[in-house]
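Entry 14. Ran structure prediction on the chain below.
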Amino acid sequence: MASAIRLEGTAVPRPTWRHAYLTMTGWDLAGLRLELPLIVVVQILSGIGFVLGIGLFFQRIPAQVALYVSTGVVVLNLILVGLIVGPQNTADQKLAGTYEYLRALPVPATAAAGAWFTVALIASLPAAVVSLVIAELRYGISFTITPSIVPAVLLTAFTGTMLGYALSHAIDDPMRTRLIAQMLVFFVFGFSPILYPASQQPPWLATISWWLPFEHMATIVRAGLTTGVVSGIGRSYLIVAIWGIVGTALSARAVGRRA
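Output, structure tokens:
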């Protein structure tokens, strides 16, 4: 039975977690009804651009390079909405004055976070699928999709979303949130070994990358799409999961501080 809260002496039923989750999912989808199709299209175009654009650097692109890029683009598709778009969306809510209203709703914080994760996943999956199809058509890559791709995709998207969610709620200034999100774009795209092996990085940067989740996201997703290409898969799952827990804990602390 749903619990109740008191509002000016009147008992108001508190929504169940499932009802709150579905309501917030609908709210997020409605709030992005104009932007969501554009986000999906931009994701698809950027994925296709990476997959096809990298081939312009080679007269004949090596199969290993094409494989790394095409599987790495999937990771970028999975984390871009939750990690980058999410904080910018929250910054817009703060500027519009709807942020405090949403925080005041009798909705469990986990339901609100789960709703945004669902929306981020919905926005990410079409681009990931299209990128793989284009890569297979363009480079003749044969992907070996295994059942492990399901937990790899879910964990990667969840961790990216929770880190973005923590950033969204921990920083008060909307402009600062936007700037940090933009900086993350450059770091993740340019300096994280997602589209290329970590062995191509300077040793000091490779060491930093090893402790961050992005390289390991690429490892577990690549393991679900190929065979014999990556190693240390269990370790990578552990590190991505730890970062997901860290992002969740930071999100809970930031939201609880504002409650």
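Strands lie at 4-7, 10-13. Will compare against last week's run tomorrow.
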